[in-house]
Amino acid sequence: MKRYRQFLPVIISDFEIKTWPHPVHNHNHYELIYIKKGTGSHHLNKEIISYQQGNLFLLGPEDEHYFDITESTRFVFLKFTDFYLHGEEKIKDQWVQEMEYLIKNRETRLSGFQLSTTDQYLIDLIYEVIIGLKPDIQTNERLIWLQIMAIATILRRNLPEITSSVARSRAMENVFAYIHEHIYTPDKLKAGVMAKHFHTTADYIGPYFKRNAGLTLREYIGNYRKVLIRKRMASGHYSLKQIASEFGLTDESHVSKLLKTAD
Question: Which positions fall inside the HTH araC/xylS-type domain (predicted)?
């Protein structure tokens, strides 16, 4: 597996190509990839995702990927390291949390983001700004950071669990983020463990979740896990044994039993 290493805090790449020149690879940095024009397929962690103009992908350091281009594609890559994300002079706190929330949500990297028409327009404008900042990255570093935070804010409000109910509180967003981060570790999704993490009680967190989400904590975790498992199975790249291991399940029969239960 080829691994690309980036030593500069941030790099902007804007180019159009007809054939993808790189083998499957990962990186030591994060990437926000914007499809300015073109069509094709994004092979990401053994999943195949069709892309078109306006699509946006967020990749973490260990994500493996390459592109299969159908129509000449203009890519805009915004690459940044942990140092850039957590640098001492950045506007951190809430804004860093916006990006960390997205990075922790593993499944967003497998599906990209479905943006509203308004937000698609805003993203396009922001990337025009980023392209304009490219000639002098060092001077414009703080401005580039602000664009990343603007993108993070827009992406976060387009996550399915957020768009389904815009009235959900930030506390609920944190609960969803925790579930998504630990969906592969069942022991961390027990009510008692979650309650301790959020400094409350097991008797409170269940009713709180149902009141705000419209279904029980157990139902949401089960439904979300089944969606992910079905995606694995549909790809044809995973055996039941591999899926059971990935999700911390007992064995293949446990996977089959989960899939037979009603959503």
Answer: 173-263
All residues at 6 or more sequence positions from 211 whose CB lies less than 8 Å from its CB, including other chains: none
DSSP 110-140: HH-----HHHHHHHHHHHHHHHHHGGGTTTT
142 φ, ψ (degrees, to nearest 5): -65, -40
Segments forming the whole domain that contains residue 202: 170-260
One domain, residues 113 and 18: yes
Assign residue 251 the CATH number of its domain: 1.10.10.60
